[in-house]
Amino acid sequence: MERLTAEGVDVVRVVYPDLIGTDRARDVLVNHLPAACAHGLAFCRAVFHTSPQGDVVPVAGGLDAGLPDVTVRPDLSTLAVLPWEPGVATCLGEVTDPATGAPAPESPRDLLRRVLARCDEQGLRPIVGPELEYFLLEPASGTPTGWRRSPETTGAVYTAGLRADPENHLLRTLRHLRDLGLGVITGNHEFDGGQYEINLTHSEALDAADRSFRFKAAVKELARKEGRLATFMAKPFGDAGGSGFHLHLSCDDAEGRNAFDDPAGAHGLSAVARHAIAGVIAHAPALAALLNPTVNSYKRFGPDTLAPWLIDWGLDNRSAMVRIPPERGTGARLELRLGDASANPYLAVAATLAAAVLGIRAGEEPPPPLEGYGYDTSRAALLPTDLSAALNALEADTDLAELLGKDFTDSYLSYKRNEVERFQRHVTDWEFTEYAYHL
Questions:
Q1: Contact 242, 236 (CB under 8 A)
Q2: Long-range contact list for 79-85, CB < 8 A, 24+ apart?
Q3: Exposed, middle or buried, 31 (CB in 10 Å: 0-12/13-18/19+)?
Q4: Sign of the four-CA dihedral 58, 68, 405, 344
Q5: What are the pLDDT digits (tens) for 337-361?
Q6: By the 8 A CB rule, do 228 and 137 touch?
Q7: Radius of gyration of the chain (CA)
Q8: Count of CB atoms within 10 A of residue 44's CB?
Q9: Angle formed by the axes of helices 169-179 and 205-225, to 10°?
């Protein structure tokens, strides 16, 4: 308290993720921080199951249990001063069940911890490097959504500076994120107008997920301060590409060496790396439910999109679902290109690690790597084409579901199937335009 007060901080924002990765929080006055650490902050457990429209989805532990509490305690090891909000610091919150003192079953951060314990059993310490894309939008009256891309410049992929970012959004954002301590390293304008990519340095898996979660919340908050909207929606516009969430994954062994590197192994990869690739390939349909978690996610997929469409892998091949970058030695890793930016970072990392662990346990080899340009359905199986199919694949993948935990998997399936049901009842603008004047 003395240090925070000396730094001019009088409020600490305690933040934690819900099932879809939305930041839930409470501002705590500094003089109440000791009590918040000792006794925790009470939140309704149903916040984990609340839809983006504010509806409480009926899942176990929510409405049927009388809307009980969870307790959230500040994790002061994650404390950081917000560079853009004078007098405010922020930290992550640890979520527990007050009846048992155990982590809440739906807590995404604790799900990742449980999966990391399984990695530890294999003598592996996962290292993750996240890459996230998003669209920046500005208000536009008269458009169907009330928003347009900011700016709408085309042909500016892999550029920086005023040509594609005339108001220097990217520079301001990079500097704020750096000062927040999120480990950002580079940023650029991406393929479509108003689309940006910011990369974070690699680190141990929990830290990488923490930083990705905080990154997404910070980017959205900074855009709001400018009167704009930053969205990590998978595909917000039909005439543009989607936004990805690529994960670079390697593992250190007990001696701290990269367990994926082996100069004598096939393609310079160790057996551990090849088994991990095989696991991701084998469990890809179920992984889609967690890495492509919305109805909108599946509009990002397709041939010639540079987003995955088939379940395959390749050596330095960006048309494959799993790309193996050319570095070896300490840089040996796989890049999973399946995820889109709407994914909850904790669930995306946990699911990917779970699939890799299952592959390492099984000890199987992956199929031959893709050669040439992908998207040929004669060479590999299709990924799920909609959220319902992906959820069915997750439910059917009992090995992956067991490793993630039955309580979590059941809650997630119920929550997401509610989303599908609500979408199926909704009449879209496309349907009205397609049918109303002709039928």
A1: no
A2: 79/12, 80/180, 80/181, 81/7, 81/9, 82/13, 82/180, 83/175, 83/176, 83/179, 83/180, 84/176, 84/221, 84/222, 84/225
A3: exposed
A4: positive
A5: 999 999 999 999 999 999 999 999 9
A6: yes
A7: 22
A8: 14
A9: 130
